[in-house]
Amino acid sequence: MKTWALVLLLPALLGGVPVIDRPVVDERGLLSSSDTEAVASELVRLRDETGAQMAVLLIGTTGGEPIEDYAMRAAEAWKGGRAGQDDGLLFVLAVDDRRARLEVGYGMEEYLPDDAVRRILDAQGPLLRQDDYRGAVLGVIQGVHERLPSAEGVPALSASKPLSPAQVNNIMLGQIGMGIVGGILLGCCVGLWRERLGSWRLAGCIGALLLVPPAITVLLVNSGRIPTFHFPLAYVVFAAMFFVVTLGAQYQSLRVAFVLGLSATAGCLVSLSDYHSTNVLKMLFDAGKSFSLLAVGLLFVTYPPVFRILIEILFFFLNSSSTYSSSSSSSWGSSSSSGGSSSSGSSSGSSWGGGGGSFGGGGASSSW
């Protein structure tokens, strides 16, 4: 019974470890904001070029606990790197204890054996004795970077290379095209062609239109940063839009359907024409706003009775976009580096949560 009590109380006796949710966690404020940004940028570059996810944890003391045990507990709580790849790295610097530790995930031990890690850490001793913490941390990152192969040389790691904004725009343009074709065909299947196709053919056509384009998109999209399901979601939104337009053309007013279809197409193209971002959901909201504004203007001129209905649609999109923008201010890509807010382009504020990687005790420690 006493043994179980000690096991349950062990975390409390040892003390907690800081939550690692960004590239640099500076508990002691050893780095200035510019230094933190510089270190975070190097960590992001390390992940982009090698696939390895590394975090830096700067603390005062481990409270008497060996830094090896402390670093292992922090790494296991963080779970840096990806599950199955175990390509996480955690650098812990305890300045009051004058101790440093680089914890290495299972997948990195081939490139970073213990003796190599120790040499990297020992080389930072002169900088640490001069309190040049920025230089020492950057030196460790550079030493790690030099020993890891590039992502091109490691096929398993290349999947983490993110998509550029231009690539995202091109994919979104493809989703618009597929959505227009898919929505129109789907509207014809359940409308004009329903009796001609029959039940089984109708079900097969609808299934193909709903499943094949998203499946192809999932296979083609290769990004470690953008959720893949956002792109199929874009296709579904565009297809649903033109499905409604097609049904409106068949059963309601051809003029209204034409105006809505033209507004939808133009709104999407306007939103994406000069959009330099990888935020697919924000693109969808902006496309919806542009579509609403164009539809209101055109229908107000061509069909005034619809004006009141479209105003309600416009308010819906505007409110949804505002809600999304406010909620995303604390989400991935705009986290704060020290509890506050930072810009979406800041590396130091980027979410750095682990992906389920494992650490097996590999690594080395150093004193200065």
TrEMBL record:
Domain of life: Bacteria
Residue ranges of the region described as Disordered: 327-368
This protein's UniProt keywords: Membrane, Transmembrane, Transmembrane helix
Matching InterPro entries: TPM_dom
Species whose genome carries this gene: Archangium lansingense
Chain intervals with Low complexity compositional bias: 327-350
Domain TPM residue range list: 24-145
Protein name stated in the entry: TPM domain-containing protein
Compositional bias ranges of the Gly residues kind: 351-368
Transmembrane segments: 171-193, 200-223, 229-249, 256-273, 293-318
